[in-house]
Structure formats: C-alpha cells, structure tokens
Write a structure and sequence with these properties.
5-stranded antiparallel β-sheet, alpha+beta, Quinone Oxidoreductase, Chain A, domain 1, two-stranded antiparallel ribbon, 265 residues, Rossmann fold, 11 strands
Length: 265
C-alpha cells in the first residue's frame, strides 16, 4: 500500500501504489494505462481526483500538442497525462504540510510558479521564468507536468482552494474558470453595482462572466455572440446564485459529455 517516506497518509483514505490514468500517445490518441501514484514533495499534496472538466485547450493538446510541452518538446508518446480543470479530495500530505488536512475537498489551479524568479516574486507566477522546469519548482499540471485525467495528481498547496459542502463536485471543477472572469473584471478596475458590462463571446468563461457580473449588481449585462438556449436563459434570469449554479452545472455537463465522446479511444 502507498506509504512513501515522509508522506502523511490516513487509513480512512487508502491510496493504491498504482493508479489508472489517460496517457497521450500519438495526436488524437488517449490510452488508459496504469501508472505509479505520484508522490508529493515539500509544500505539495496528493489529490484524489473526484471530477474533471474538459477545456477546449485539453482537446487542442490532444490533437496538436501545443501549448503543452514535456521535456522541452511536444507531449506525444511521453507517458503524459493531460487535464487541468479538476477538483478532488486531499489524499496525502507532503513532508511538513499542515495547511490542509487529509479528506478536505479542494479545487485546483494549474499553475505553481517556482517562487524564486523575478516574475514569481512579483506575483506573476503564470509567467514564471522557470516555466516547464519541474526541477526548479515550477508546475503547470496538464501542460508541463501530469494533469487531471487520472485517479490522482500532485498539486502545490498554493494552487488549492477549499470547496464548501454546498458546492457539487461538477461545479467545483469550474472554480478557476469563474476566477478567470473575476480577474478580468478586476483588471478593468472592478465593478460598481449599477454599471453596465458587455461580455463578448458566450463560451464557458463568457457565461461565467455574465453570472459574476450579475451577481455583483451590474445592469445591464450584455452578451454578444452565438450560443444555445443556455446563454439566453442565463442573460435573462434574475441574479439568483442557486439558479446560476444549476445553469452552469448543466452547461458544463453537456460540454464534458460532448468532449469525452470526441476523445474516447
């Protein structure tokens, strides 16, 4: 059974030595394989993946390789596991990690900067100067290191956000996607209730931008582009959080089902 030196585990959440994972072969090829369960290092945890969303970038990586890069080159036939929008349960703690507890539900961000370079020290860890160098401490799960199309993954503690019991697993996979929309509003200088907002493009991030803007009191919120009835319902509904959760969850489920049919080997 899984018990690496220095790693804290719990009998209440048994972890196997081997896990199942989707591995990228040639372009447009995914294979279900057994891989060793990864081992968290200092400031890292092992995450049991409970739900994963499929981003359009995941499909791009599976088809063309870019923007993923493994060992300085395309990710094909390198035992690489894609996937970066996932949530799960903390299953094991790296050495001296006490910021999280085993059994906590979390959602993840893909980027963990090295923490040492100039950009990381300025807070711009997504532009880490050691990008793609896990030996220097950088991780971009699903891009430069193994991602979430597996039973387990390793994540830096700085990439974790606790998930409340009121949020479903499927909803929690979209936490970072919603955060992208919130970041965009922040970069625009914030939002004062009553201000108008225009969202261009009703993809998942655009739909969540509409939900965030309406929840913050924007009026009117204008959505441009073409989409199914989900977008039209979202833009017309009153700003009720539970309704948005239901809408967003349904939209995400439909998108994931379509994507899995496309990539199913």
């Amino acid at each position: 059974m899984y018990q690496p030196p220095g790693v804290e585990t719990s009998p209440d959440l048994a972890v196997p030595d081997l896990m199942k994972a989707w591995v990228l072969g040639d372009p447009d090829q995914l294979f279900l394989r057994e891989k060793p369960t990864p081992i968290p290092s200092r400031a890292e945890v092992l995450v049991r993946i409970d739900a994963v969303a499929i981003c359009a970038t995941d499909l791009e990586i599976i088809h063309a390789g870019s923007p993923a890069s493994i060992q300085g080159g395309p990710p094909f036939n390198k035992n690489f596991t894609p996937g970066h929008e996932y949530m799960g349960t903390v299953a094991a703690l790296g050495p001296d990690v006490d910021e999280f507890k085993i059994g906590e539900r979390i959602s993840v961000e893909m980027h963990a900067g090295c923490g040492q370079c100039k950009r990381c020290r300025q807070g711009m860890y997504t532009s880490c100067l050691n990008y793609g160098k896990p030996e220097k401490g950088h991780r971009a799960n699903g891009f430069t290191t193994d991602g979430g199309f597996a039973e387990y993954a390793v994540n830096h503690i700085n990439t974790l956000a606790r998930v409340p019991d009121s949020m479903s697993d499927a909803e929690a996979t979209l936490v970072v996607t919603a955060g992208t929309s919130m970041y965009g509003l922040t970069e625009l200088g914030g939002l004062v209730a009553g201000e108008s907002v225009v969202v261009i493009g009703p993809g998942p991030i655009g739909l969540l931008a509409v939900a965030v803007a309406k929840a913050l009191g924007a009026s009117p919120v204008i959505l441009t582009g073409t989409r199914n009835t989900m977008a039209r319902r979202l833009i017309r509904e009153p700003a009720h959080t539970e309704q948005y959760r239901s809408l967003i969850s349904s939209s995400a489920s439909s998108a994931c089902a379509e994507a899995w049919c496309t990539t199913d080997p």
